[in-house]
Amino acid sequence: MYKLWLIPALPFIGFLINGIFGRKLPKMVTNLVAVGSVVLAFLWVLFVGNQCDWGAKPLHAHYFTWIRSGAFHVGWDFAVDKLTMIMLMIVTGIGSLIHIYATGYMEHEEGYYRFFAYLNLFMFFMLNLVLGGNYLILFVGWEGVGLCSYLLIGFYFVKKSATTAGNKAFIVNRIGDFGFSLAMFLIVVTFGTLDFTKVFAAAPGKPVAVLTAIALLMLLGATGKSAQIPLYVWLPDAMEGPTPVSALIHAATMVTAGVYMCSRSAVIFLHAPIAMETVAIIGLLTAVFAATIGITQYDIKKVFAYSTVSQLGYMFLGVGVGAFSAGVWHLMTHAFFKALLFLGAGSVIHACHGEQDMRHMGGLRKYAPKTMAVLACASLAIAGFPGTSGFFSKDAILGAAYEHAPWMFWVGVITAGMTAFYVWRAFWMTFWGEYKGHGHPHESPWSMLGPLVVLAFLSLFGGFLFNVPKILESMFPIKEVENEAMLTGISVAAGLLGIGISYYMYVMNTELPGKIANGLGGLYRLVYDKYRVDEAYDTAVVTPLVEGSRAVLWHGVDQGVIDGTVNGVGYQARAIGHILKTLQSGNIRSYATWVAVGAVALLLALGLGGGVK
Amino acid sequence: MDPSAAMEMLKHGVPTSWYLTLSAILFSIGVAGFIIRRNIITVFMCIELMLNAVNLSFIAFAHQHKQVSGHLFTFFVMVVAAAEAAVGLAIILTVFKNRSTLNIDEINTLKN
Fold first, then answer.
1. Nearest-neighbour CA in chain A from B14: distance (Å)
2. Does some domain include residue B68?
3. Which of A117, A372, A525, A540 is deepest in the core (most CB within 10 A)?
């Protein structure tokens, strides 16, 4: 009816064209195919959104039956309701902008066509993920975006660090995906189907313990994909990928898949209070934890990476306290301003000839004023400055958190202050002061700045334009928050305070940060080293696993059993041959002797056996 | 068996077993010569001896069973032996030309 299949099919065609013929195509055509396919998908989403009657049931399209086993059916189904629609808009809209930006950013890179082929493939899987009408289709997209993430993190595969980061992302996600698979098995066992509508209709009647188990396993999946404690470690390393990838996959879309999945499964979560509480606490912990790390980092992309982890924590806090629509709202506004932050960072890095360390930047407001202006918009939005998009969504989450448990609100406010601080710290370090890098910094081309301007507009006014809780009211009822004005005031004050402190520390009194860092000593080192979580994981999990694999699986099983069997057969054949080869002396008379002996032996045997009958 | 009894038996023709015994003796001489002697020509003659020992037993059985197939086989064997003699002697000549020896133990280039 609405040809929903067209939405993912368009980027897939783009992937096929660029992936197969890209090497031979001129850059113009590659651009046109890559950007065009995504923009067309975006236009089709707008068309469907415009034509569809949203008062009625969700759109549902069944294409074919994929798996049929007894009473158990899984079809290739797409379903579109308002939540899906919002996700579709974000994915294709932000995706289009980032594709356009990437044509400028990646212009001088090797493997240009490969980059766009992967990016289009990512769009295909991401759209499958959000369009899927059952858990299995969602899972197909879920795995597919993981694959593309891996491919794109390791895009500069001649760099060891990039391939390592890609592997890390893939393997860590594997742990989460394992949880998600188990959740699906449990759903099949409990409900006998994977269809969203049927599962959610039957969920209220099922035992709480089972629903809690399902929800917790889903949460494990979400912590992997959406970089939450304990599986967040891959995301900061994922910044090895090109900056548009960081913006699209590791900030705006893929990493929010966990939030989408939890919101989609809201019915299950709502019937599992313990799981909800766990979601909220994990989200909150991640938000604080990542924010403290973000404060100390010097690599501009690392700062924003930890910021992403922290903001994702906010979204999970929203989901966990029952404000699903607020979580999705923050998902959307975050997509705007974090994509902008990353793309802006890319523009800054571009301007500084590939430099990522903020200590070697500074003073860029003279050289790249347009980049500065758009980054200021994004920084205001993430700091929750009143009127900007981030203000609305963050406020909605914090208000819901206060209703749930006041302490969560206060931790959230502290995090908001820290968020404002580290983002503006990056801003001041980059644009204020004197330029400390090498070469002559320059402004970026318009193919890069254009999308930034659009995103800046959305970062500032996205909150007014799209009131997500209002749109999703039929799915997730809005809870009224008491003392809303006071709570809003407190969180805004925290944000402004963060901006103010960062201004004081990094513009007015630039000696101060060093002194504080020295004063804190060990504590500062600990935070700067990211709490040494990576090292702890290495010691506790990675090293034993690698050593165990080396000793048992490699030396024991592979070299001992498998190689031993294969080589053993060879050795035995050779040993037997060694004995038999003495017969082949090359001496005719010895051959004749053997023939004679053989003949005699045969005759004797025949004779003893009673002769030939 | 005393001589008179033997003479009595011979009146009815020589018994087949005697032919067979002779054939076996000739064959064994051939085999022994093949194994023991080093000169290729001697070895070759030993092969001929073995073939003819077999011919003898064919003929003896043909006579005993009054069937012609034994003779047929003998003719085949003789044809093969003649052909073999032609080829074999040619090979021996070539070997001697190239190596100046007819010692069979020194002609072992097919080894390895």
1. 26
2. yes
3. A117
